[in-house]
Write a structure and sequence with these properties.
By secondary structure, this protein is of the alpha/beta class. 49% of the residues lie in helices and 6% in strands. The protein is built from 16 helices and 5 strands. It has helices at 26-36, 58-67, 77-90, 99-107, 113-118, 124-136, 168-181, 193-196, 203-214, 222-235, 249-252, 257-271, 276-290, 295-312, 319-322, 324-327, and strands at 9-12, 16-19, 48-51, 69-74, 161-164. It has a 5-stranded mixed β-sheet with strand order 3-1-2-4-5, with helices on both faces. Strand 1 (9-12) and strand 2 form a beta hairpin. The chain is globular, with a radius of gyration of 21 Å. The chain starts with 8 loop residues before the first strand and ends in a 12-residue tail after the last helix.
Amino acid sequence: MPFLRPRKMFAYNNSIAYCRINKCASTFSLETTRNIFNCRGETCDDIEKVIRTSVDMFGEVQNIVNEMYSFFFVREPYRRLFSTYSNKFYLPKEYWAPVGPQVVRRYRMFPSADSLTYGHDITFRELIQYTVDRFERKAKLDVHLRPMYRFCNPCFFNFTYIGTLETLDSDWNNMFSTWKKLNLVNVPNNVTVRDVYLKSHLPEIMHFYRSKETLKNSTIPVYNLFQRVWSYFQISGRISKHMALPYTREEVVQLEYIDFHRAVSDAIDSSKKEDKNIKSQRTDSLKQAYATIPKELLERLRNFVLEDCNMFGYDSRPDWLFGDDLANFKTDFDYFPAI
C-alpha cells in the first residue's frame, strides 16, 4: 500500500491523539498534552499510548485518528529547515552524529579529524546540499529534515485539527476550548494552555554541557562552543546582538553550568526591553543563512519543500527568499561565529 505513514503517534486516555512532526512545536505539544493529563513517570502507563506505525497497522492508525480528537502541527518549510540547522547542528548538541560526519565526508575536500568524528562545524549550505541530494536519491532522511507530509499525511488520515506554528497560541487555545466542551479533559474552564505548559528553563544549556563533556578529548576550542551557544540565543531572538559573550577564552574553561545559566538568563531579561528590534534578529539570521545558498541549489530545495507547501498552504517561492530582498541583503553582524 503506497501510503506515507506517521513515524509516531501519541494517544491519550483513548480520547486525544497527537501525530508528532519534529521542529513543528513538537516539544511544546507533547509537554502540554502530557501536563493536561498529568502524565509523568509511571502515571503515564495507563494514559499515554505510543503507536509506532507500520504498513500493517494502517487500519489501527486510521481508526485512532477517526475515533479520537486527532491533531498535528506544521510550519513554513524553509524556516523549519533553518530551525533544524540552528537548533540541532549550530547549537552544540548531541544531534551532531551521525548526520554531521556524513555531511563532512561527502562535502568537505580536506576535513579535519574532529570534523570527521563529530561533524560539529557543518554549515547551513552543506546541510541543505545534503538534504536535497538525499531527497533526490530517495535516501532516508533524519526526522528533523524529513518533509512534513511523510509524518502525518491528511490524504490518508482524517485528522480533526491541523495547526501551524505561526498561529500556535490561537490554535492551541481553540483545541483546548473544544476539549473542555467535549469533556475530553478534566480541566477548569479558567485554565489556559500556557498555564499547563511547564517549560523547562533553558534546556539548550543542559544539552550544551552534555555535549561539551563528549568533546573533552577533541581539539575544538571550548570558547567557540560557548560562543555558539550565546549566538544561538541571538539567532532565536532572545539575547540582543549588542550583548557579547561576557567571558574570556580563559574564563570559559572552568565555567560551571549554574554560572553560565545565570549569565544567559540575565542577558535574556536585559534584552526584553528591545522587543521589536530583538525579534528582527530571527529574520536577519534566517536571511544570512539562506544568502549562502546558490540559486541552482535553491531551486532544487524548492522541489524538496513543494509538496509540503502545496499540502499545507505555504508559498513555495516566497519573496523574502526568491525576490530581490535576499539578493540585496547585507548585515553588519555575524550570527554564526566559530563556524
